[in-house]
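[recover] target loaded
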């Protein structure tokens, strides 16, 4: 793939599920209090150590919430020879060489209200590469539209792709940056096909 030129990052932390996960932790903690045996015949019974109960319940809730972090961070790598995504596991690795990307299809999009543009883009075959954000880069390759949504400005990503495509001698690479910037503001559902 050549030299690494740019790393675009996308993250979405699901803070809204923290409280439900903490509640589930307390439910698990309550169940554990009734299922676990009483330690001594002289002790009063269940919930005799409230500090330990609260601590273990909160830790259980935070562990449940931390499982949502698995899909919260994603990167898109721009190399001399193409784009790499989903590289954390060998079976999910996605490599898209410049020859597979239609240079004229590269577009930067955003929304006026700050919502995720990926939800407003409609296509028969659309693949989301990012975790979400208020800006997105869209391109067509392999009979699908690929969307990388992020909270960061898409201009450096577009310029890195343009530079790599130019250096690789991809036909039509000059159109990649000219048609992609400035970002198109989406106001409603937009068909990509």
């Amino acid at each position: 793939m050549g030299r690494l030129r740019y790393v675009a990052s996308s993250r979405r932390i699901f803070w809204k599920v923290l409280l439900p996960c903490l509640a589930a932790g307390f439910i698990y903690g309550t169940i554990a209090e009734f299922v676990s045996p009483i330690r001594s015949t002289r002790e009063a019974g269940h919930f005799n150590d409230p500090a330990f109960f609260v601590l273990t319940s909160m830790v259980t809730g935070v562990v449940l919430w931390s499982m949502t972090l698995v899909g919260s961070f994603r990167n898109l790598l721009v190399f001399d020879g193409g784009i790499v995504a989903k590289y954390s596991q060998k079976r999910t690795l996605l490599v898209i060489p410049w020859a597979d990307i239609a240079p004229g299809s590269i577009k930067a999009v955003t929304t006026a209200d700050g919502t995720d543009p990926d939800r407003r883009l409609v296509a028969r075959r659309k693949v989301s590469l990012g975790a979400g954000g208020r800006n997105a880069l869209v391109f067509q390759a392999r009979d699908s539209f690929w969307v990388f949504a992020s909270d960061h400005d898409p201009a450096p990503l577009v310029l890195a792709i343009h530079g790599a495509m130019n250096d690789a001698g991809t036909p039509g690479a000059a159109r990649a940056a000219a048609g992609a910037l400035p970002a198109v503001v989406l106001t409603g559902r937009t068909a990509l096909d």
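[recover] notes: The mean pLDDT is 84.
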